[in-house]
Write the structure tokens for this entry.
Amino acid sequence: MTLSASARRLCWLLVSLCLTSSLAGCGWRLQGTTKLSSVMATTYVDTKDRYTDFHRALRESLQASGARLTNNEDEATAVVKIIKDVSGQRVLTVSGRNTPEEYEVFYSIEYSVNGRTEELIAPEKLELTRDYSYDETAVLAKQKEQAVLREALARDLAGQVVRRLAAL
């Protein structure tokens, strides 16, 4: 017994409807942007270095979440102050020949948030780390891997900050 084309479409429609309903019922949702409160409607990002991976990722995340970024601190409803923005790497393990075998990439930030009249978030420190193995025969590839990891850490930190801001 074979099903007609319209019967197959109806079956697929019912299966899709059941899957969609079960996913919606369990609380699943697409990971996306976080909507910010009205306090963060017009945001000024105060930093000493505007060319870091974290600063760039934070600005992109804020804009994706609906904040309007301004270059004038006086017209901002909130000021995100980046107090510290440091990244680097540390040696984790060395071989018997005393050469590095594994590195740890870290990204550390400290930030605070002020509204027009009060402090919304006191200075908070965040640090993320990732490690990678080192191969002295592939130096350029490992340098690229370190840069990619540092950018990923900056994006993750920016996401954490924006989720914290969404809770205001």
